[in-house]
Amino acid sequence: MPKNTNPVTQKSGTSINLLLTAIVVVVAVVVIGGVLLFNRGGGGGEGGVSPELLRNPDSNVLVEAPDDKVTVVEFLDYQCPSCQQYYEGVTKQIEADYEGRINFVTRNFPLEMHPLAQPAAKAAEAAALQGKYKEMYHAIYDNWQEWAVAPGGQDYARDPAKATQQFAGYAEGIGLDMQRYAQDVDSEQVQSRIDRDMQDGQQAGVSGTPTIFVNGEQFNSTGQDLNQVNQELRGKIDEELQK
Question: What positions does the domain Thioredoxin occupy (predicted)?
Answer without folding.
Answer: 18-235
